[in-house]
Amino acid sequence: MANQNNEVEYLYRISETYSNMSKGQKKIARYFVEHQSDMCKLSITQLAQKLNVTPSAITRFCQALNYKGFSELKFYVGKNILSSHNMDNTILKEDSLSVLIQKLMMLDQQAIADTMLLLDSAKLKKIAEICIKAPHIHFYGEGATGVSASMASAILMQIGIPSQNYSDSVMMRMAASTLEKGDIAFGITYSGKAFDVIEAIKIARRNGAATVAITGNAGSIITNMAHDQIIYSGNIQDELTQLPIARICEIAIFGLLQITITKLSKQSPKKLEGIRKSIEQVRKQHNHNM
Q1: Which domain covers residue 18, as residue numbers?
Q2: Between the CA of residue 250 and those of 108, 115, 116, what are the distances in Å?
Q3: CB of 218 within 8 A of CB of 71?
Q4: Which regions in the chain score pLDDT beneath 70?
Q5: 20 to 30 A Cα–Cα from 44, which one of 55, 85, 124, 227?
Q6: Whether this model's pTM surpasses 0.85
Q7: Does residue 49 form part of some domain?
Q8: 63 and 150 in one domain?
Q9: Is residue 285 part of a domain?
């Protein structure tokens, strides 16, 4: 089993253990194999209702296959579906500029589609509800993910929710040490291995704050450290030409968080309209100065 590809290993694990599964587990296994695309669109609660089992039964099934839970198994199923349909978008040295642009745009689209399959709407709702009540919201990102952290703050400010973002290693730790129960901290790292972000999340969690990992690596250190995880496309190469794709996925997730908060929040429409007017005034002023 060690030489199996991660994306299809779940099928191997199911086939190897199927004969020893209970009747209920076989029912779940058949659905996973026969309806992979449909399964990726469902939350664990929705899937449990569809199969007439409990969410805990699905979790136990996933753990019996040596996955941490439904989210991790769903991640690999989603990757397999996408890889089986993807054209070869490998960036080649001899590619013309027009071909290079086409390949990169296709990679962008694939990453967003991948992320859509991996998103758990129930989990997004849970995180949004915490954000609505949280006195303090922090976003941590080092290097290029610092851009995403900054954008996350701007996206929430557009709906009247203030937050802070930090990309300096010392400031992240200092800020995390001020959080307490009721607050929430987001750690952003594609690899899931960014040391300073992990340390900040560790401190925030130790102080009682809710913690969320935003990452493309479902089995990474930060996913084990944070209370909740939002996983996006892991099908992004560690190359200069593809680095912006991770940022696109991260910012898209925060856009979805904004929409979810707006949907759930009892924020005064008058306040939101005031924010929109302020933004419009700034735009008009900039246009006038130009």
Answers
A1: 9-85
A2: 12, 9, 12
A3: yes
A4: 1-8, 79-89, 237-242, 266-290
A5: 85
A6: no
A7: yes
A8: no
A9: no
